[in-house]
Amino acid sequence: MPRIRTLLLLAGDILVLFASFLASAWLITAWGGIWEIDFLFFLTEDKPLPSIAFVTATVITGFYFLDLYEKIRVPSQRRLAEDLILVFGFTFLIQSFISYARVPFVLSRYLMLLGSVVSIGSLVLWRSLYSSLLLNSLGYQRVIFIGDSPLVRQVASFILNNPERGFQVAAAFHPAPVEDFPGCHAAVLDSNFLGSVKSLAPDLIAVAPDLQPSPALANDLLRCSMQGLSVGSLADLYEELFHRVSLEALSTTQLIFSPAFRPKPVLVAFQSIYGRLFAILGLLLTWPLMILTAIAVRLDSPGPAILRQTRLGQGGVPFTFLKFRSMYVDADARSGPVRAQENDPRITRVGRWIRLTRLDELPQLINVLRGEMTLVGPRPEMPELEKRLLAEIPLYTQRHRIKPGITGWAQLHHEPEDSIASTAKKLEYDLFYIKNMTPGMDFLTLFHTFKAVLFRKGAR
User: Fold this and answer.
1) Most exposed of 220, 258, 312, 385 (fewest Cβ within 10 Å)?
2) pTM above threshold 0.85
């Protein structure tokens, strides 16, 4: 459902941009004085459609980098207008560059100016209309919660604060009285449960994983399912909303018996093939940059250019992890094996720069070629750190179900890992990736990684 909403918004943005620039061209030709030509003649002879398409693609790219396809709801038209002005400023720079470079797809300055003004106004109206009518009036999935726990309240609060996700809290039921449930009054489960469900007309009944249903409740839920209602675990709704697996709802039994956490061998083999092909291409394209980086590292501080560390791979098997050295050679001796922090004094001058640009990760392409890593997967952990974490997060070893990756689903969400809670959250993202691993998800992750590198998100 969220993907459909995003695709609809994208299609609307493209139509609005094309319509705005064509309307601006018509206005300019209708007024005369600037272009003394007919509108149809302009379309057929000057052929502006490829240039308008290029401008549209540039604007849509700017929307993507500003996360305007993740912020579907419009809480402030002023803020939206500011974002649009920034995007069109970027588009003007691109148009200026390609005009000096004598590249095609340049719009005339009059059409670019008027079209941008019309587009900004039209996009503010279109996105506000889409948010208020389509998201706030149509398409909500009404959810009934059965049970009460911190996890249930977290999901209900998220739904309440993010209506653009298309869900609505319809009701909550619990065997005992509950106070201050987010979004609704929580009722007590009684013999009239089926009648309440019928009157509420929910799209989904989400049952708390820790709830032990009585025989009567189990029978009622079975009848709901037989009548065509969707009855499921709250854990599934949690995954859909947060794109991660809830450790609180995850049981050892699921990990043992569920095939969802065992990636299909054909997918693993295919991932290994395109991972190695990408690694070969990456090394061929970046070897001059790698040589320059190695020289810069050696000149900046004494020690080897390539850092070799022992990390844990698939199945917990140790391997030699490669990266350009970004810290002083005695960094681990001073502090022990710990993760990098903000403004870490162990990082060298060149090291800080190659971390921001992620150039320090390039030698890991060799790990991919050797079959120790792949492009997308959990980050390989140091054995000493993992040993400490296992005392607090017993399921941490479940990351070893697949090969570690250069980038990953968890890395995209930029959790700082400066606490047990944030480390556990990254594990939830890793398990979600393992459960939903596909080539499409890999390419989506790589695409978003490019954005993260460009905007230096999550680098330390």
Assistant:
1) 258
2) no
